[in-house]
Amino acid sequence: MPTLSYDEGVPGHHWQISIAYEIKDAPQFRRVIPFTAYMEGWAFYSEWLAKQAGWYEGAILFATSAVYAMNCSARFVCR
User: Which of 8, 22, 33, 34 is paired with 59 by a 20 to 30 Å CA distance?
Assistant: First the structure.
């Protein structure tokens, strides 16, 4: 569950989309249209950031994050 929280919440997609809407100089397509590579890249970055910050405690959470990363990789490649 923590991995999903980091992926979808803060610093994940919620934060990403909020920032995209706040950028006034970006073209409309950049603020609204989802680019899978960019979105999943942001998700990978947010999960990596959580690991670097030490927010994963214990082997089980770390293993869960690895399985989740494999699922994200499959979505990244298949879309």
Answer: 8
